[in-house]
DUF4190 domain-containing protein
Amino acid sequence: MSYPPPTYGYPGYGPPPEHPQATTVLILGIVGMMFCQLCAPFAWVMGRRALNEIDASGGTVGGRSNVMVGYVLGIIGSALLILGVLAVIAYIVFIVVLIGSGSSS
């Protein structure tokens, strides 16, 4: 996505407009952290892309703080998702080993 170059003269009043996906990344990060960890990787990927676009805009696009919060929450939520999957796998392996050792006696 390309953004217009900064204009010359007096700067406009107020902050620059937010990135179009800033709120989406923030919401996905919060949902991925609190309720459904499957949303967290999407917040992570979309947040990284939005941060790159904000940095490349030269100050004409804002919303960096919202995107950064969503991005970090996406990373944390993804780590929790991986730990949860590993815990489920370990539990299944434990149950299989327990059943296997109980039936052989």
Notes: The first helix runs from residue 22 to 34. DSSP finds three helices and no strands in the chain. The chain has a mean pLDDT of 88.
